[in-house]
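Per-residue structure
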Amino acid sequence: MNITTKKYSDMVDKASPKSRIGINCLNAFLAGGLICTLGQALTDTYLFVFGMNIKDARCFTSISLVFIAAVLTGLSLYDNIAKFAGAGTLVPITGFSNAVVSPAIEFQSEGLVMGLGAKMFIIAGPVIVYGTAASVVYGLILSAANAAG
């Protein structure tokens, strides 16, 4: 069968679903904004209701967001939110929590060591490695820039 590039491209266009980029961007913006608003509400609660200092309030906010995302992942609700929100759920701390918990749940049947322990960082591991490496490079650049002037 001999198909021209143009005919193949037309077949792909016909078979591919139409992108809803505008709606997808709006949903991501709203969901990401909602997660950030929740984070700010938690920080304010820790500051004004519990009387914490700003450093502790921010720490507890991070812990709370990780915990909420992990629970939602464990209840299979985070994936439903992600289907609607798309990239909006990739707000770093909640997306990272989901990236750690999802493989742990998926591979728990393989045991605590080879399943849960070994697979927990299958997705999040590269983020940790490259994030750490990038921070070292950025630190060296900043140190060199400060030494230079």
Observations:
- The mean pLDDT is 89.
